[in-house]
Amino acid sequence: QVQLVESGGGSVQAGGSLKLSCAASGRIPAIKDRGWYRQAPGKQRELVAAIAGGGSTNYADSAKGRFTISIDNAKNTVYLQMTSLKPEDTGVYYCKADVPDRGTTFRYWGQGTQVTVSS
After folding, report:
1. What does the alpha-carbon distance between residue 73 and residue 70 come to, in Å, rounded to a whole number?
2. Burial 5-20 (b: 16+ CB within 10 A, else e)
3. Tens digit of each residue's pLDDT (9 = 90 or more) over 80-95
């Protein structure tokens, strides 16, 4: 089992910045990949950024150049630094962790943190 707790959401004006944090506990060594997803009102959850165990990163086109995902292994925490925020970045941001186990990948989610960007 892996437990994820997000923090850092809030309300900002367009052009502002926020830094989200996701602290993991439980089976930390088993985690392969971690990332951030966003769910806007009335829309499906979508990938924002991901970071693999080896450190490689992947970003949604909408996040490239504005968002940076990073990990502090000593703190078991993944961060999402968001800059130049736009109203369309508004949504609930969820942290995820993938744990492979005997041929199956289990995906764990945090409870989500709200980000609201006003124009």
Report:
1. 10
2. ebebbeebeeeeebeb
3. 999 999 999 999 999 9
- The pLDDT, as a whole number, for residue 67 is 98
Name, in order, each residue with C-beta under 8 angstroms of 25's C-beta and a sequence gap of 6 or more: 2, 3, 5, 76
Among 89, 85, 106, 93, smallest CA distance to 27 is for 106
DSSP 25-57: EESGGG--EEEEEEE-TTS--EEEEEEETTS-E
Q: CA-CA distance, 114 to 94, in Å (whole number)?
A: 9
Q: Please, what's the largest Cα pairwise distance for the chain?
A: 47
What tokens were used for 85? 């925020």
For 60-83, what is each residue's pLDDT tens digit? 999 999 999 999 999 999 999 999
Task: State the CB neighbour count (10 A cutoff) for residue 113.
Answer: 21
